[in-house]
Amino acid sequence: MPLNLIYSLKQLLGFWDTPWATKGKIMEFFLCVIGMVMIVEGVPYFVFPAKMKFWVTKIMEIPETSLRRFGFSLMLLGLFLVYIGKR
């Protein structure tokens, strides 16, 4: 069942219709995306390290259920943005 779900998501996002969907290009694209995410995630820690320490301690005070809801909402928003970008 999980493979069917993955295949359905790939079809929904148009994964197979892209010109870069050849052997080796998929991993190259994936690594590029992961690298960009790491750059964006690392900027606040580099530019504002003291403020990031403050916000990390604040996040520790938020209940787990709220963090899970927020994380799930961000995942849905990300999936929606990928869908819109692939249309």
Folded structure, characterized:
The protein is mainly alpha-helical and 87 residues long. The chain has one domain. 80% of the residues lie in helices and 0% in strands. The protein has 4 helices and no strands.
Characterize this entry briefly.
The protein has four helices and no strands.
Number of domains: 1
**Major sheet, described briefly?**
none
What's the total number of strands?
A: 0
Please state the overall shape, judged from the principal axes of the Cα atoms.
flat
Distance between the termini: 26 Å
Radius of gyration: 17 Å
How do the helices and strands line up, and which of them pair or pack?
Layout: H1 2-12, H2 25-47, H3 49-61, H4 64-86
Helix pairs in contact: 2-3
List its traits.
87 residues; mainly alpha; 0% strand
